[in-house]
């Protein structure tokens, strides 16, 4: 007689994880894996931190759960006070949630509430081709992964789409030598005008596209130009920092690379580094004051979770104390250089790109034409399986901006990865 079967593992012979330390994982047979993907680009401070485990236990022992509308918890108060100065948002207000999709949903609601409170009925949100923003209804609506969206189209709303700054297959091949930011900003402006500026509530994008498109770093002029267009039409900028937040790209937040100040910012994965399902929606003081005056209601049962805040605070202190954001910048340069050395000349490697400890290798059938492999060959997926056999864990994705489907190997190791382990990752992939 068998009991219930865990859905994801059903019918698959997966190794059973026994524990982890830093960038290493061990299964129950004692096999070691080097985790170059941080799970799903989640784990920043490394596996097996006794410090975070102790903080979680201490909070749970004292009190695990109180309802956020009845009590504030000291861990949450200290958490947001410590986090505040690090956020690239003016006069930031933090609304905690339990993950990335919840954070995106909250930001979408806030954008709509903001305009309604100002007497404007704006409901269109503009996303980018190929983007991924989560799996709930609103998050899927603003995502640009057509394959993921297709079955749910009748349910989805009115999101519009603009170009992605995907330089390898750029929508503007003859762009200005200083970068194609101006062309992307023009394309965005055309979408805003076509939708009617009075209808457009917000633009949502990752500062550096994460796993979905494979670490696409936009040209230096992209974000300033995009932000200028949005603000000229009264459109709020939502930075999706679910993957890029908390040091992943070698700065505290991806927005910091360009000094842009989004009106709303969402974060999750690295916030509690996988030790707790913590997410955050952050809005500027102006957005906060406007939506609060109109009676905006925030709250899920587990928003404001005291244990989640304790986990987030412990992670934040470790990131600061151990200089892990700076380490991510250094190790990232090393990883990029070593990937280039190992794979740069390979006939099926089209592009190697990234920033900090978020890197991707785009595989192609033909380097000259950039033609992708047929989908049915599942090349990246098979390489990830082979690397796992060699003890290196990678992440694969099928980037699909500009109408192409690609094969991407994505790298997002814990920020605590050592120089020797970086070399092992580059050689093992
Ligand atoms: N936004 C981005 C950029 C993501 O990468 C993800 C998840 O991969 C999400 C949102 C959704 O986060 P979650 O899976 O925690 O709901």
From TrEMBL:
A Pfam family per the record: Aminotran_3
Gene3D superfamilies registered for this protein in UniProt: Aspartate Aminotransferase, domain 1, Type I PLP-dependent aspartate aminotransferase-like (Major domain)
GO molecular function: pyridoxal phosphate binding; transaminase activity
TM region positions: none
SUPFAM superfamilies: PLP-dependent transferases (SSF53383)
Keywords: Aminotransferase, Pyridoxal phosphate, Transferase
InterPro entries, alphabetized: Aminotrans_3, Aminotrans_3_PPA_site, PyrdxlP-dep_Trfase, PyrdxlP-dep_Trfase_major, PyrdxlP-dep_Trfase_small
Family from the record: Belongs to the class-III pyridoxal-phosphate-dependent aminotransferase family.
Protein name as it appears in the record: Aspartate aminotransferase family protein
Provenance organism: Kribbella antibiotica
Lineage of the species this protein comes from: Bacteria, Bacillati, Actinomycetota, Actinomycetes, Propionibacteriales
């Amino acid at each position: 007689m068998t009991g219930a079967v865990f859905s994801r593992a059903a019918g698959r012979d997966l190794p059973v994880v026994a524990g982890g330390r830093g960038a290493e994982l061990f299964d129950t047979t004692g096999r070691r894996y080097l985790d170059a993907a941080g799970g799903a680009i989640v784990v920043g401070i490394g596996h097996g931190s006794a410090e975070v485990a102790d903080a979680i236990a201490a909070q749970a022992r004292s009190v695990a759960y109180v309802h956020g509308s009845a009590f504030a918890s000291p861990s949450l108060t200290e958490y947001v006070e410590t986090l505040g100065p690090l956020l690239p948002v003016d006069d930031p207000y933090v609304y905690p949630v339990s993950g990335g999709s919840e954070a995106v949903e909250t930001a979408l609601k806030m954008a709509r509430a903001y305009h309604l409170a100002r007497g404007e009925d704006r409901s269109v949100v503009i996303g980018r081709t190929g983007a991924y923003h989560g799996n709930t209804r609103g998050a899927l609506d603003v995502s640009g992964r057509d394959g993921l969206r297709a079955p749910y189209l009748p349910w989805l709303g009115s999101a519009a789409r603009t170009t992605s700054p995907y330089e390898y297959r750029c929508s503007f091949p003859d762009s200005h030598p200083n970068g194609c930011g101006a062309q992307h900003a023009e394309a965005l402006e055309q979408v805003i005008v076509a939708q009617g500026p009075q209808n457009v509530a917000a633009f949502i994008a990752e500062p550096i596209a994460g796993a979905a498109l494979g670490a696409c770093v936009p040209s230096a002029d992209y974000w300033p130009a995009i932000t200028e267009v949005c603000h000229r039409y009264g459109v709020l900028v939502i930075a999706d920092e679910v993957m890029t937040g908390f040091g992943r790209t070698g700065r505290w937040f991806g927005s910091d690379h360009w000094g842009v100040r989004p009106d709303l910012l969402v974060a999750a994965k690295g916030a509690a580094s996988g030790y707790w399902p913590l997410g955050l929606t952050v809005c500027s003081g102006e957005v906060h004051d406007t939506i609060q005056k109109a009676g905006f209601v925030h709250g899920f049962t587990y928003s404001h979770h005291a244990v989640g805040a304790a986990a987030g605070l412990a992670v934040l202190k470790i990131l600061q104390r151990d200089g892990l954001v700076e380490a991510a910048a250094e190790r990232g340069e090393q990883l990029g250089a070593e990937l280039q050395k190992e794979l740069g000349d390979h006939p099926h490697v089209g592009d190697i790109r990234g920033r900090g400890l978020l890197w991707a290798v785009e595989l192609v059938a033909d380097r000259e034409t950039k033609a992708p492999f047929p989908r049915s060959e599942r090349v990246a997926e098979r390489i990830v399986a082979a690397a796992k056999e060699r003890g290196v864990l990678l992440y694969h994705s099928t980037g699909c901006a500009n109408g192409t489907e690609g094969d991407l190997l994505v790298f997002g190791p814990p920020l605590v990865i050592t120089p020797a382990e970086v070399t092992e990752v580059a050689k093992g992939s």
